[in-house]
Amino acid sequence: MYFRIKRTGPYPYLQVVRSYREGGQVRQQVIATLGRLDVLQATGQMDALMHSGLRFCEKLSVIDALAAGETEGVAVRRIGPELVFGRLWEESGIKGALEWVLRDRRYEFDVERAVYLTTLHRLFASGSDRAAERWRENYRIEGTEGLFLHHLYRAMAFLGERLEDEPMVLGSPRCVKDRIEEWLFELRRDLFSVVDLVFFDTTSIYFEGRGGETLGEYGHSKDHRPDRRQMIVGMALDSEGWPLCCEMWPGNTTDVKTLLPVIYRMKERFGVRQICILADRGMVCEETIREMEGTDPPVRYILGARMRRQKEVCEKVLSSQGVWQEIHPERTQRKSPAPLKVREVTVSGRRYIVCLNEEERCKDVYDRAAIVEHLRRQLKRGDKSLVGNKGYRRFLKLEGEGHFAVDEDQIKGEERFDGIWVLRTNTDYPAETVALQYKRLWMVEDMIRTAKSILETRPIYHKCDEAIRGHVFCSFLALRLKMELEKRLRDRGEVWEWAEILRGLDNLYEVEAMFQGRRYLLRSQLTGHAHKAMRAAAVAVPPTLRQI
């Protein structure tokens, strides 16, 4: 049955009608005409009638009682994070991988649940393990009710626990977390799976305290905190942008020392014979390149070249003449690919790809002109303070007794680098493929930025190396969950914002209340992009009200 408005002249009348089927046709029968709708509303009779009928509607009476404050509140729990990421945790294989490495261990608490709690917290609020314990109090996360702070610490130490009889590489042992990474790789592997293209980059993460027994060392800080001890974290992605593994070394390890150990480890861990590594110009030196070419089979690489520091690149590669091959023309729309031209140059058997972005060339010209113009004005006021400015210093030269002047030759020489970058490779990929693949190195850089900003791996207060490695590895697991959800959203053709997904899921909660001796759960409305995340994860939205 349902309500229907029937107009008679200018007046609307409210009727109660039922539908029924007769002879294959749907018919309606008027049960009662309640009167003029405007009169019922104006006199309050409609409200009184509906309120009177609530006592015969169990669920609606609970909602009405809750709005009137007549229920006894028991608890309010946020349920969105667990609904979506709990499903992804299982289907991505992370839960199974943890249960596999824990199969011979006998902990008195659920280590898998402790790792899951820390990883989930890293996605939504981030921070320390102590913060994760407090954060859990407002969320419904299955199986974490009996966990305490010392359980989280022990779970982190388990992930970073060194495996016996395994060699150290640059001060980094083989750990439990490595077996989890290998298990996850095998899950995605099939007969045709190969790791033939690997993107690799590193970053530094500083500590609030000493930073463990061996990891915390002073070194070149990419966070501009030379006053803090730090560790070096490297991350490798496959050709699809999927995180393969993360490596951790003491904070005084230089980038050029990390590349070869990563290559050897990946070959051994993931069972690959040939691999092509992509890395930026800060990751390599000539000795590293010679070692990669001297292996059997040689390691294929696509590496950024130091244009100003490498004599061969500066004098021969950039001075060579040739025809540019246009890959992407000038942009006609904002979302079009950036313009790109390439030119192949070979010097003594070494293959280089020179790349040009016309937009960047114009920007470099404009920026340099602005710097030089400001420099000329500043020189008239005094030149001593300009030497400390890195942007100014490269365009200055010493003239006379302790005085500086604009170096016109240097300004002229900088023009040859405008919009240009140079790659060195020993692959047989076409020049276009080399350039486009190298440009995808932003994926790992973006992944590292995500781990350090969105996931806030810092602060790290742990005092032992094992717990520190486990803490950082939880950010790696959080990244995999994020990528799994984003992949499913792309497959569905959804348009989303990550912040809106987190906001929507975080604002989905259930109110547990007592009414007339019975216990009920009342769900809030979906907000943000929570509905898109739940569809992508194939999770059913809980009913608005249910009795438990």
Short structural summary:
By secondary structure, the protein is α+β, with helices and mostly antiparallel strands. It contains 20 helices and 18 strands.
Structural features, described:
With 548 residues, the chain is an alpha+beta fold. The protein is built from 20 helices and 18 strands. A nine-stranded mixed β-sheet has the order 7-6-5-8-9-15-12-11-10, with helices on both faces. It is globular and about 100 Å long.
What does the secondary structure layout of this molecule look like, with pairings?
Blueprint: E1 2-8, E2 11-22, E3 25-36, H1 37-43, H2 45-53, H3 58-67, E4 72-78, H4 80-91, H5 94-101, H6 111-124, H7 129-135, H8 149-159, H9 176-188, E5 197-206, E6 230-237, E7 243-250, H10 255-270, E8 276-279, H11 286-294, E9 300-304, H12 311-317, E10 325-328, E11 340-347, E12 350-356, H13 358-379, H14 390-393, E13 396-399, E14 403-406, H15 408-414, E15 420-425, H16 431-439, H17 442-452, H18 465-491, H19 498-506, E16 509-515, E17 518-523, H20 530-536, E18 545-547
Parallel strand pairs: 5-8, 8-9
Antiparallel strand pairs: 1-2, 2-3, 4-16, 5-6, 6-7, 9-15, 10-11, 11-12, 12-15, 13-14, 16-17, 17-18
Helix pairs in contact: 5-9, 6-7, 6-8, 6-18, 8-18, 19-20
Main sheet summary: 9 strands, mixed
Structural class assignment: alpha+beta
Shape: globular
Total helix count? 20
Number of distinct beta strands? 18
In whole angstroms, the N-to-C terminal distance is 29 Å
The Cα radius of gyration reads: 32 Å
List segments where confidence is low: pLDDT < 50 over at least 5 consecutive residues: none
Helix content: 25-40%
